[in-house]
Amino acid sequence: MLVPVAAVLPLGGAGVSVSLVVGSSPALAAASHCVITNNAIPRAKYRSLATAEAAASPGATLGVQGVCTGNTEINKNLTVVGQPVKGSSTPTLQGTGSGSVLTVDTVATLSLNSLKITGGNAASGGGIVSNAGTVNLSGDTVSGNSATDGGGISASGGTVNLSGGTISGNSATDGGAGIFNDEGTVNMTGGTISGNSAPTGGGIYDLGSATLNLSGGTISGNSATQGGGISAAGGTINMSGGTISTNTATDGGGIYNFENGGTINMSGGSVTANSATLGGGIYTKGGDATLNLSGGTVSSNSATQNGGGIYNDNSTVNLNTGAVSGNSATSGGGIYNDNATVALNGGAISDNTATSSNGGGGIFNNSGLLSGTSTTMTGNSPQDVCPAYNSYTSTGC
Using an 8 Å Cβ cutoff, are 45 and 35 in contact? Predict the structure, then answer.
């Protein structure tokens, strides 16, 4: 009977160690140890990502087997791919519990696939922090990380491209449990951000001049005091697709957009089945905050107080096309307009419900300004608009 014996053999050339387990199967070795390969050096195997990164040339592809523990700084273009082995654990980059698991510096691009990134705990970006670099995630799991800002990922002036995979179960004590977008750019075309929690921006927190482009994927089941799905303090959210659903918050179950010139441009996708005290779907706040609806749907959201679909607080909502439908609240089932402006340029507000008898199923206008008459209103209960505005139904107000 062969007894497994760990041996380090110099098979990878000068300065390269190859870790083998004599007398054990490859599956057992992968399950027990971190093994990292380099596609440009066929016989090279490393026991840590930091060692493999230091030895790699720019553009190399590194393969990860087993669980690799440690924090790694990336300063060159690399692709890191999980290589599952039958009978072994999911290829994992495991943090030390102090610092970010991965730090992408300068203008480096790091592309990740089929990996689990977990166990990070940092001031910013527990799992991954991109400092002016680019991170591409196409089929990874970023979970079980924590930070002050950006429990899962922080884009600090950098770029994060999410086309697949899952960012879930992360936490932040300040903002952005899933992703903290600090004056960076996040492009989400697929994947899921779910089950994250923070005081601000359970799924994503945009800060300053940050840009979030959402064209696909799902942001769901996240929680926060402000912005269960997304919170934006300035910057721009461009939503042309994807789904923001079943998130919860005190203010803005789906999205909380407040002050500092924050702009939401919604041309597609759906904000649906979110819940909050104010603004079940979207809460937009502050004189320089703007929500432009030119497509998509804000539907089936609920607020225990006001603004089932949208709570517009001293800001501007331009309804051009798209639909606000099937939302519910005490007042303003579709939209609660609180000392703010709503331009009814098109689209539809339909089948929304206010439980108050004079609550404005479609819109409740509280000392705000309504303009335009091109929006279709049907099926709102108990009335389309309260107080009365133009020819829209206002019976009972």
Answer: yes
pLDDT class of 163 with cuts at 50, 70, 90: very high
Please report whether residue 50 resides in a domain.
no
pTM for this predicted structure = 0.92
Asked whether residue 59 is domain-assigned, the answer is no
How many domains is the chain built from?
1
Which domain does 160 fall in, by range?
Answer: 66-386
pLDDT digits (tens, 9 = 90+) for 52-65: 999 999 999 999 99
Asked if residue 310 belongs to a domain, the reply is yes
Question: Tens digit of pLDDT for each residue in 126-148?
Answer: 999 999 999 999 999 999 999 99
DSSP tag of 387 = S
Provide the token pair at 302. Answer: 């609920």
φ/ψ (deg, to 5) at 206: -95, 130
Give backbone dihedrals phi and psi of 294, rounded to 5 degrees, phi first.
-125, 20
In the predicted structure, residue 29 carries a pLDDT above the cut 60:
no
The CA–CA distances, whole Å, from 189 to 49, 99, 276 equal 28, 28, 26
Asked if the structure places residue 23 within a domain, the reply is no
Cα angle value 394/395/397 (rounded, 5°): 75
